[in-house]
Amino acid sequence: MMINILIALAAGCASALMFVSIVSGALISLLLFYLAPLPLMVAALGWGPVGAAIGGLLGAVGLAAIVSFPYALAFIVTIVIPACWLGHLALLARPAEVETDPPTLEWFPVGRLVAWMAGFAALTTMAALLTLGTDGTTINDGLRTGLQRALSTRNSADADRLIDALVAVAPPAAATVAMLTLTLNLWLAGKITATSGRLTRPWPDLRTTTLPAMTLAVLSLALGLSFVGGVVSLVGKIGSAALFVAYGLCGAATLHTLTLTVRHRGFLLSSTYALVLIFLWPAIALIALGLADAVFGLRQRYFQRRSMPPPTIT
């Protein structure tokens, strides 16, 4: 019991220090900031979400005492709550509907974890923007001022156009980064915990990752809201960006399935991911593939054409 408490405390302190390192301005601090949820996620998956939550709250108390209360509150909202809740969901299980001997468990589907991560990415991004103001004009002015200060641009027509373009793309870009960061941290936490032997659930088949059917309706609603204007438009753009990333992940899972029998499959997959990392825009193809799978069931049709039993959808 004492070891669990010490591990939770160490995880909370490590996450808090990684989170607050961004104030140093060093380049390495940006990497530490993005990996701040990792220690708490490892603690949640390996030693339970309750202990991780206690460690995170103690880390927040330390931030409030050493830095400031707003930093502590931001740490709780953006790091502690998502890390502990996702860890809790990942460990949820129930008896399988089909009775087997010995009895088997149905674990919380990975697709629903991805949907939760999209929700957290959208909420934390919107919460950060609301610190700049409560209406669209004030938020955009705050973003414009911050970008002008960061870029040190002089007043000119070209500089103004650049700033306006960055203000327009900043909210969805922030949601995209938040979504990718949560996904990477949870995957790394799962790998670390599984390697240490502390992960109680079996490693899922990520090729079968499927978002809930309602997600497509939510994406349609978010896209519609993005054309309304004001704060509602920001909500729509942020939600759409997070869900597009989620469908991009499903597109990657679909690609892994559809290329099972392709020669030089490893080269094809590695080339695809290299193009996405280098040029970014090829990710649109993965998003389109994920959306097509959600609408037309590409993976199910793939297994039906080959008379293969499809794996259990997660």
From TrEMBL:
Asked if the Swiss-Prot or TrEMBL record annotates the protein with the keyword Transmembrane, the reply is yes
Look up keyword Transmembrane helix and say if it applies: yes
Listed A to Z, the keywords are: Membrane, Transmembrane, Transmembrane helix
Spans traversing the lipid bilayer:
41-64, 71-93, 113-134, 162-190, 210-235, 242-262, 274-298
Q: What is this protein called?
A: DUF2232 domain-containing protein
Naturally occurring in which organism (per UniProt)? Rhodopseudomonas palustris
Q: What is the lineage of its organism?
A: Bacteria, Pseudomonadati, Pseudomonadota, Alphaproteobacteria, Hyphomicrobiales
